[in-house]
Each structure stands twice: as structure tokens, then as C-alpha cells.
């Protein structure tokens, strides 16, 4: 399947999930993340869930990171430039939902892409080679291209991988792992 077909398929699959099922699956994903060899790192980038798109609830993962005393970094979108800026989550961070439904920090202590060690990446679908399909705006591919080469990229998905994404582009950056409620996929 190509990216557009996969986007449609996985948006539909997510739309059909009940909210209580999303909650249960999100908790299972957070528990699976504990198996990863990533816990010796310092700076973890996390996306906050877009509730109306039925994304994985990352609140459980946020609690794990806080419990392990890790630095959590959140992004703020600039839709005019197609870029993300990154801010350290602190007790003083104010989160506001933007016009696209994305919870984001208003401002705070800015963190460069080069400082990040682990990035939890949102996605709609992915394949067995770690190729990820997002919403199609390229925000995360541009963001990941600015990170240090050894940054660990972890996708989170309710669903298993597709066999192959046929229209992978040169600028697409593959994942290192993808976590589902029942599996840890390594690429």
C-alpha cells in the first residue's frame, strides 16, 4: 500500500476504537516501553496525544518518565514554517491545546534537537523495516533530521506493522523501535 492508502486505513482503524479500549491499550504500550534498553539516557522527547484523533494516550509514559526522574521535552508546532521547537517540561510549564487539537507548551526552557537522547514518535502506520507514516506534513522528518545520529527513535502504535510501505522517500527517517500493546519491534 502507498502512504495515502495506509493513512486512510489507520485513521479508520483508530476511529473505530472505543475510548476505554484506547486507555487500556495505551497502558499496555507504556508497560512494553519498560523493556527497551533506553533507561540510562537523560533527555526524552514525548508527544502529547491529540485526543480527537484517538492517538495513544502518552500520559502513562509521561508518568513512567517522571517516576524515573528523566527530563521530558515537549514540542510546539510552527505551522507556517513546518517546524517544531522544543521545551523542557517543568512544574511551571503551561500546556495549551492549539487550533489543530495538539497540546503544546506555551513557552519555557528551550532545548535543542542535539540534546535529545530518545524520541517517542507519533505515527499512523509503519512497516517491518521501521518506515513510519505520519499525518503527511513532514514535521517529524524535519525534526529528526536535526537530531544527533545516535538518537533513539521509538514509535508507538496500537497496531502491528505493515509488510512494506511502497513510497518511502529519501528524507523519511526510519524508527529504531516500535511498541505495540503486545510486541516490541526492533529495526
Automatic annotation (TrEMBL):
It comes from the Bacteria. Substrate binds at residues 50, 55. Its EC number is 6.3.3.2. GO terms for molecular function: 5-formyltetrahydrofolate cyclo-ligase activity; ATP binding; metal ion binding. The keyword Hydrolase does not apply. ATP binds at residues 3-7, 132-140. InterPro entries: FTHF_cligase, FTHF_cligase-like_sf, NagB/RpiA_transferase-like. It is an enzyme of class 6 (ligase). One of its GO terms (biological process) is tetrahydrofolate interconversion. Keywords: ATP-binding, Ligase, Magnesium, Metal-binding, Nucleotide-binding. It catalyses: (6S)-5-formyl-5,6,7,8-tetrahydrofolate + ATP = (6R)-5,10-methenyltetrahydrofolate + ADP + phosphate. Its cofactor is Mg(2+). Belongs to the 5-formyltetrahydrofolate cyclo-ligase family. NCBIfam families: MTHFS_bact. This is 5-formyltetrahydrofolate cyclo-ligase.
Amino acid at each position: 500500500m502507498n502512504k495515502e492508502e495506509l493513512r486512510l486505513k489507520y485513521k479508520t482503524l483508530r476511529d473505530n476504537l472505543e475510548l476505554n479500549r484506547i486507555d487500556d491499550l495505551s497502558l499496555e504500550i507504556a508497560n512494553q516501553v519498560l523493556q527497551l534498553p533506553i533507561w540510562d539516557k537523560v533527555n526524552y522527547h514525548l508527544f502529547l496525544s491529540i485526543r480527537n484523533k484517538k492517538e495513544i494516550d502518552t500520559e502513562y509514559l509521561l508518568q513512567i518518565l517522571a517516576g524515573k526522574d528523566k527530563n521530558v521535552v515537549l514540542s510546539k508546532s510552527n505551522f507556517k514554517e513546518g517546524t517544531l521547537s522544543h521545551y523542557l517540561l517543568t512544574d511551571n510549564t503551561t500546556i495549551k491545546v492549539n487550533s489543530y487539537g495538539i497540546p503544546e507548551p506555551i513557552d519555557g526552557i528551550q532545548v535543542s534537537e542535539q540534546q535529545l537522547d530518545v524520541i517517542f514518535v507519533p505515527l499512523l502506520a509503519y512497516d517491518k523495516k521501521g518506515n513510519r507514516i505520519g499525518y503527511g506534513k513532514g514535521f517529524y522528518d524535519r525534526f529528526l533530521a536535526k537530531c544527533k545520529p545516535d538518537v533513539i527513535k521509538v514509535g508507538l502504535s496500537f497496531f502491528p506493522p505493515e509488510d512494506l510501505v511502497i513510497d518511502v522517500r529519501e528524507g523519511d527517517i526510519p524508527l529504531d523501535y516500535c511498541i505495540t500493546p503486545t510486541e516490541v519491534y526492533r529495526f
